[in-house]
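Field log, afternoon session.

UNIT: design team B
ACTIVITY: writing a sequence onto a fixed backbone
BACKBONE:
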């Protein structure tokens, strides 16, 4: 169950540190569910998630236009091919996002942990590949490529693949230094329900695998091996630090709880 499909990653990247900044509520959810949340592309803040670069979109549309002479009854399908491809990809692709850097980020604390009760989970790229229970046949892990979506070029084959497009983001997001796990929005034995309960075979086999009614998926992870350390938000109170340490003990984790270096 190891994820072996890498995107924009070198061998030297595999042991680099990744961070997931969480509110306290999301941290408790992680522990209670034993699963990571994967969001559909069409639910993320960036409205251009999963879109084709404009230049490539125009090239492909021109080719589709040329096909009209050979397929007269199919003009509407050809005209809408790229639009439908993007819409379907944004619905059927889910991502789990991490910050790839050796050091903490004050920006990430403020944007994702929101207050002094948040935490950051530290792990490594290799641990994500080994201990997040995605279906490896459908999953890629890699660094986001920050581009100008007006001028960036892709091959037409790549542009047709939602998972390829999921690793592109606009230049203005480059400070996020994002690493993603990208997989398909299908329920399976590796998932838990929206209530955190295991799924029975009838809930993920056949039509049960369809997850279009939800904003994403919870996919199980081996948290004991995935989490290398838990870092407390800058300015955390002593009482809250004790609470986090108690939660760690209750989950039988050996991950150390560390205070932020930003407040020092």
């Amino acid at each position: 169950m190891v994820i072996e499909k890498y995107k924009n990653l070198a061998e030297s990247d595999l042991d680099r540190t990744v961070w997931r900044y969480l509110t306290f509520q999301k941290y408790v959810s992680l522990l209670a569910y034993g699963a990571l949340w994967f969001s559909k592309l069409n639910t993320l803040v960036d409205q251009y998630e999963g879109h084709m670069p404009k230049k490539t979109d125009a090239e492909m549309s021109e080719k589709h236009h040329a096909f009209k002479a050979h397929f007269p009854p199919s003009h509407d399908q050809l005209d809408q091919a790229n639009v439908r491809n993007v819409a379907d990809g944004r619905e059927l692709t889910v991502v789990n996002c991490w910050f790839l850097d050796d050091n903490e980020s004050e920006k990430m604390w403020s944007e994702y942990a929101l207050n002094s009760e948040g935490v950051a989970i530290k792990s490594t790229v290799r641990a994500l590949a080994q201990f997040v229970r995605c279906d490896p046949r459908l999953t890629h892990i890699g660094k986001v490529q920050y581009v100008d979506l007006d001028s960036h070029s892709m091959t037409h084959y790549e542009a047709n693949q939602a998972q390829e497009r999921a690793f592109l983001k606009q230049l203005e997001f480059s400070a996020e230094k994002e690493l993603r796990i990208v997989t398909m929005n299908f329920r399976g034995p590796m998932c838990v329900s929206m209530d955190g309960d295991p799924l029975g075979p009838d809930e993920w086999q056949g039509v049960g695998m369809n997850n279009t009614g939800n904003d994403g998926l919870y996919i199980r992870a081996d948290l004991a091996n995935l989490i290398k350390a838990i870092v407390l938000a800058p300015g955390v109170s002593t009482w809250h630090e004790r609470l986090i340490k108690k939660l760690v003990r209750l989950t039988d984790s050996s991950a150390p709880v560390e205070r932020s270096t930003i407040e020092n």
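LOG NOTE: The chain has a mean pLDDT of 92.
NEXT ACTIVITY: expression trials, pending approval
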